[in-house]
């Protein structure tokens, strides 16, 4: 899990908007195994370790359903610490007959895909050891091969699923963008990430400290896709965590030099990428 702590810059928390608060809370607790950290009305912070939040759920009064073919969340990815845990969670989802959307072997990782009751995309995955990843000319090799689900289920059969295990983190986030103009400037020159893989002009994967990706970006919702209404289902913001206050302030300075705006609210700093995806800037 060394890619999700200093000296890495990584994604740590997200805030999601949902239409039915109790339904969503039941899903995240009973299906995935999150715990409630704290709750104020229809805003709840969910945790794994009982100390730091990974997901905040909120229901605006005038909430709209998820809007198709817009920028915003493609999926967020929950990184489990070992294959047994992922197998046990998959067993649990199968037993509960919860619909899955796919499963893949990405060479660097093994992943299962689903969505929450509002259609917010979710990836559940484990990493293969980084010593097994293949790099060439500064890019990591990733693909979409069939997952060996049978062996994964068999490995998880020895564990009764109760909750997400210690060591579970938000591994990465994958966002729809309208196009790639200024995207590398924002995320790489500004925030300080490095490109690790490009899939033509359709997808871009970036990371820090040699991870396979902390952030994925794609134009699969359509080039020129517009931002969704602020009150629609989806992501409010995702958090990028810097290893130090100095690193955060230098990133803010770089973004301002590139003419990206910074908003300060309640002692927190926010910015938005060129496709209006909102990002909270924090320190580990």
Automatic annotation (TrEMBL):
Protein name, per record: Glyoxalase
Alphabetized PANTHER family for the sequence: CATECHOL-2,3-DIOXYGENASE
Domain VOC: 10-127, 169-284
Organism field: Salipaludibacillus neizhouensis
One Pfam family named in its UniProt record: Glyoxalase
Superkingdom: Bacteria
CDD domains on file: VOC_BsCatE_like_C, VOC_BsCatE_like_N
